[in-house]
Amino acid sequence: MDNLLRHNLRNDLNVVLGQADLIADEVPDVSEHTAIIRRVGEQLLQSAEKEREIIDLLTEQQGRQRIDLREAVHESVETVRERHPDATVEVTAPEPAAVYGRPELRLAVIELLENAILHSDDSDPTVQLHLRETETHVELTVEDDGTAIPRIEADVLTGDHDMTNVYHSSGLGFWLIYWAVELSNGHVAAHYDEDSGNRITVSLPRAEEA
């Protein structure tokens, strides 16, 4: 049923987007309005895709596997750089860092980076990613100089959400991050400083400690 609903939603939204393009071509005076239709439609398509990823994450019993987080980070960064060529992603990940986690951690890294880029006030934003090992954990930190992540969104990330408030959360990306980390026996911390911006740290047990 879930697959059927997603399939129908995707097909119907593609029809809406196609009609918006036709109207923009035939009636250029309304192109500003059709651009809004296209933007909202594309956002709905992205939400449907993230919903699928979350459902798969929660229902597929893949279990945890050994992951070279440094390699996963570099793969995720390349994806983000291709999608957002005007953004700069700086990476500090000097050593291999093995964790036991869900393969969706790669998607979580992409979500963290894209959130920082898309919510920046700069047309060419810079995001920093740091990877380091402690005695028991691997820490992945994403830093940006944007405005503060709303408290209700940060609470989704950290697991401090109240189920009476989660419906006000604006997107599914943070839920994807939360569950990918939670099912990997990790946790997320979010911090904001007026001078330096947002800092989100994902802590995951090292492979030999997991």
From TrEMBL:
User: What Enzyme Commission number(s) appear in the record?
Assistant: 2.7.13.3
Task: Keywords in alphabetical order, please.
Answer: ATP-binding, Kinase, Nucleotide-binding, Transferase
Q: Which domain of life is it from?
A: Archaea
Q: Does the keyword Cell membrane apply?
A: no
> A GO molecular function for this record?
ATP binding
> Which ranges of the sequence are coiled-coil?
none
Query: What InterPro entries does this protein's entry cite?
Result: 2C_sensor_his_kinase, HATPase_C_sf, HATPase_dom, His_kinase_dom
Tell me the leader sequence span: none
- UniProt cross-references to Pfam families, sorted A to Z: HATPase_c
PROSITE patterns this protein is in? HIS_KIN
Q: Where in this chain does the record put each Histidine kinase domain?
A: 4-208
Q: Which reaction does it catalyse?
A: ATP + protein L-histidine = ADP + protein N-phospho-L-histidine
Q: What class of enzyme is it?
A: transferase
Q: What protein name applies here?
A: histidine kinase
